[in-house]
Amino acid sequence: MIKRIKLVVLTAIIAVTSYGFTTYKNDFFEIAKQIEIFTNLYKEVNMNYVDEVNPADLMNTAIEAMLEDLDPYTVYWNEQEIQNARIRNSGNYTGIGADIISKSDAILIKNIIKASPADKAGLKIGDEILKIGDIQVKDYNEDAGELLKGAPDSEVVLELKRHTTTKKITLKRGVVNLKAVPFYKLLEDNTGYIVLSQFTRSASSEVIEAFQDLKTKGATQIVLDLRNNPGGLLSEAVNVSNVFIEKGTTVTFTKSAIEKYNQTYATQNKALDTEIPVAVLINENSASASEIVSGSLQDLDRGVVIGSRSFGKGLVQRPKKLNYGTQAKITISRYYTPSGRCIQALDYLNGKSIRKNKDGYTEFKTKNGRSVYDGGGVRPDIEVDVEKESELVKDVIKKNLIFDFANTYVNENEGLTLESFKMNTSIINDFKKFIQKRDFEFETKTDQKIKELEQMATTEKFLKSIESSLVELKETLQKEKENLLEEESETFQRLLTEAIIRKLGYDEAVYNYYTREGEVIKQAIQTLNDKAKYKEILGF
């Protein structure tokens, strides 16, 4: 009898478990089948392949290849990558307090946090670290940047190259606090200006502290700058919105194929101020949590959004623990703003990104009945063209040409200070000559198509008959690219100014420059000062 009872219970458990698997994933059998096939294949390759293989490398390749067919945010993390993610979310880590670029023979200092261990040791933007302790960077096969990390108060000797000289410095590592609000200031016309650079665990508390201080100093309107903010913790996005939005208001909600991931995120606390006029600044590098804040304030008609269309990341990820201290960060749902729009700009199919067609955008309505649309990031209420970056500009930035020229310029102009520096056309012309000397080649999609045509013509033996036409086409395209370079002079002027000022006076100097000369901030202040226009934009 006991055996029969156990059998009945076991059968019931199996039935319930099987039903759970069926409702959770109706293709569970197919998953198990494919895992078994892969396991056998992996074993046979490792045991029988003609050359020696590294099982770990082989598996990493398989994992990465599998995930490439999904979106770029679904990734596999080893222990170090998990630690890096924790640092990004916490805003605190033990290190030197500098952004770096890893090169094959050196580590380049891209930016330095004021009063950080790197700053105290005398490191400068543009320095190239050649040796860390006894290890030559050029001989180190792994990520040399990891060598800069260590226990608090531990010392390391660095050998570096600065412009034309080589020197040694001793650096003491320490705890680095990456502020979510690196800058805030009371501007003229009683405008409070707050820069929020990332959504770490302290983001909302830092915004609240800045907001309260600015109001004490007399701020009667607020500019919240989310430009170049890549996002972070969703909970902090809700809490930042809560500064301006009353308790119990939906800020965002998520939809998933799995019911338990469908959630609504509403404000939990009493708002600090539901009446103060607000302008939110965004650009194409404002993503994820930045889009939740800007999108919710726009949908609720709580603030005017100014700048250029945001990045368009409407996907939510969640880390899932795996074996041996590793994790998978998996996209589990899409998030939506209060009006019901998803701002995801791209669809992903077989590893390829497909931008949504504007004709397929869906119209939604804000609280006051204004029209907003899904499918392509948050579109500003007031668009400022100066914030848009062409593919040419993005390529120049990616190849560090702005950064390299700024370093060269400051190094070659001894005695240059923030007070004495003035941007002029001569500097812009020198920059254009600089990128020519660096053999900068901007490859357009047209260039790629011409190469494809050339290859096809060669294969089909038509090249000789169309060669002269191809040469003429290339020459015409080259002239168009030169014209494009000329058209971007104003953008290059802005980016070069920022890079030179940063080298002379840290990020703080750049933010101060924005408040004096920034077109987007000027537009924001002008809009906030014009109360009638502000209300009209928001539909009041």
UniProtKB/TrEMBL annotation:
Q: Which GO terms describe its biological process?
A: proteolysis; signal transduction
Q: Which domain of life is it from?
A: Bacteria
Q: Which GO terms describe its cellular component?
A: outer membrane-bounded periplasmic space
Coiled-coil annotated spans: 463-498
A GO molecular function term, named singly, is: endopeptidase activity
PDZ domain segment(s) = 81-175
Record keywords: Coiled coil, Hydrolase, Protease, Serine protease
Q: Name one Pfam family in it.
A: Peptidase_S41
Entry-linked InterPro entries? ClpP/crotonase-like_dom_sf, CtpA/B_N, PDZ, PDZ_sf, Peptidase_S41A, Tail-specific_protease
Which PANTHER family does the record cross-reference, listed alphabetically?
CARBOXY-TERMINAL PROCESSING PROTEASE CTPA, TAIL-SPECIFIC PROTEASE
**Cross-referenced NCBIfam families:** prc
Its family remark reads: Belongs to the peptidase S41A family.
**Name under which the protein is recorded:** Carboxy-terminal processing protease
Which species is the source of this protein? Psychroflexus gondwanensis ACAM 44
List the top taxonomic levels of the source. Bacteria, Pseudomonadati, Bacteroidota, Flavobacteriia, Flavobacteriales
